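Hi support team,

I've been running sequence recovery on a batch of backbones for a student project. Most finish fine, but this one hangs at about 90% for roughly twenty minutes before it completes. I'm not sure whether the input is malformed or the queue is just slow. I've pasted the structure tokens below so you can try to reproduce it. Let me know if you need the job ID as well.

Thanks,
M.K.
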């Protein structure tokens, strides 16, 4: 059972567990229990026979059959009703079930991974989640901390999503600028990994060059309240910091070559050298 706040990447972990297991060549089937109406949960999980209910024109396999030999991932397991919990417990105990409206017993070999963002201990106390099912599911528990508690993952995930969406949207973006990385690291990410992924995809779409800068990130990250910073500099100082960051990005892109950096910035090498001295930038550290 994988537990953690919404958006922390529980499904990614489930995928990783599947693809690094002996079942990797078999199906990985996902079911969002919270998105299924109560009337459809049973037929979605266990399938149905023709004529089982109005509109059932043909036999249909359920998710357990589809995942036979592989992995079934039940997301938001805490949203299942009491009746569905009882049927799920039977499948876990005997590895067999019947389709809705059928008498044939079907046996399956499925690895079950579940996930929830609910406090199941409270649900147990309230009587809304079966205790026997809880202990059957919680054989090996994984807790996924929120992104704000694992900031060292932010840059790794950002680079992963950058590569992903550069490929999907056919863009030629090489990297994220240092100031933009600082903004990503300072933000508290209430939406966790999902919010970070959406932020990087947006930046990929709005960037008109080959580097993602701070102003390409979502407006939420650009506010002092969101990043936990407080504006404490004048307009002139802020402009100077922005200009210094642009110069450093250009020097980094050209490996310290001032002439090339000047061309990138649309200025002359003489003016660039003047500003480099003024801001105390050591261009040599960008070489090599």
């Amino acid at each position: 059972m994988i537990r953690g706040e919404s958006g922390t990447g529980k499904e990614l972990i489930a995928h990783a567990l599947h693809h690094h297991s002996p079942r990797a060549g078999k199906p990985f089937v996902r079911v969002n229990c919270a998105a299924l109406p109560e009337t459809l949960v049973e037929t979605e999980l266990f399938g149905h026979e023709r004529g089982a209910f109005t509109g059932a024109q043909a036999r249909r396999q359920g998710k357990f059959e589809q995942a036979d030999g592989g992995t079934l991932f039940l997301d938001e397991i805490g949203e299942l009703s009491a009746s569905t919990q009882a049927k799920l417990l039977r499948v876990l105990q005997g590895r067999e079930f019947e389709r809705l409206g059928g008498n044939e017993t079907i046996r399956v070999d499925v690895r079950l991974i579940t996930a929830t963002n609910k406090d199941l201990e409270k649900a147990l106390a309230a009587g809304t989640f079966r205790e026997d099912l809880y202990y059957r599911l919680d054989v090996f528990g994984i807790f996924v901390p929120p992104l704000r508690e694992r900031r060292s993952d932010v840059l790794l995930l950002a680079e992963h999503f950058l590569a992903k969406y550069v490929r999907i949207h056919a863009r030629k973006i090489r990297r994220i600028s240092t100031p933009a990385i600082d903004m990503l690291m300072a933000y508290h990410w209430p939406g966790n990994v999902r919010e970070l992924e959406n932020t990087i995809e947006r930046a990929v779409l709005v960037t008109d060059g080959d580097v993602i800068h701070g102003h390409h990130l979502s407006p939420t990250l650009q506010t002092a309240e969101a990043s936990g910073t407080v504006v404490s500099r004048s307009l002139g100082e802020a402009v100077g910091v922005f200009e210094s960051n642009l110069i450093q990005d250009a020097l980094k892109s050209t490996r310290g070559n001032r002439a090339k950096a000047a061309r990138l910035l649309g200025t002359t090498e003489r003016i660039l050298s003047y500003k480099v001295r003024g801001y105390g930038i050591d261009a040599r550290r960008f070489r090599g």
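--
Follow-up from support: It reproduced on our side and the slowdown came from queue contention, not your input. Confidence is low (pLDDT under 50) at residues 224-231. No action needed from you.
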